[in-house]
Design goal:
Layout lengths: L12 H4 L3 H4 L9 E5 L3 E7 L8 E6 L2 E15 L5 E16 L10 E5 L2 E7 L18
Antiparallel strand pairs: 1-2, 2-7, 3-4, 4-5, 6-7
């Protein structure tokens, strides 16, 4: 038997999670990230549960790798006569950025998305020391 829910999925949701629990409903594990250093590269493993591959974007700009993911979920319960008792939808997106260096290019990064986990291999690039340029100030007189 379907019962109308004036509370969340659990009676105590309103008491313990309000107001922040509802803002992150269903996204508690979204974008949890592990970064591992190997000999020649960094490996990023990011959890993206419930996100499809086509909803994940990775952009490299000014030495920063930005990963953006979006999700769109809905749950629906109907009474036997077809009237809605409850309809809920959640749409959201989030992103994370990592500084990987200005010498890293898109071709250097290898990415794979499988079973809700994004794995990226980013090679280590040695930073070239900046050559200090001497600047002289003209003195009049």
């Amino acid at each position: 038997m379907l019962m109308p829910s004036i509370f969340g999925k659990n009676l105590f949701d309103d008491f313990f999670d309000y107001p922040f629990g509802r803002l992150t409903a269903g996204s508690g594990d979204l974008m949890k990230t592990d970064v591992k250093e190997t000999g020649q590269a960094y490996e990023i493993m990011m959890n993206l549960p419930g996100v499809k591959k086509e909803d994940v974007k990775a952009e490299l700009k000014d030495g920063y790798l930005t990963i953006t993911a979006g999700t769109n979920t809905s749950s629906e319960e109907k009474a036997e006569d077809g009237r809605y008792i409850r309809r809920e939808r959640y749409t959201g997106s989030c992103s994370r950025s990592f500084f990987v260096g200005e010498r890293v290019t898109e071709e250097d990064i290898k990415a794979k998305f499988e079973n809700g986990t994004l794995v990226m291999q980013i090679p280590k690039m040695e930073e070239q020391p900046a050559v200090e340029k001497k600047r002289y100030i003209a003195i009049e007189g």
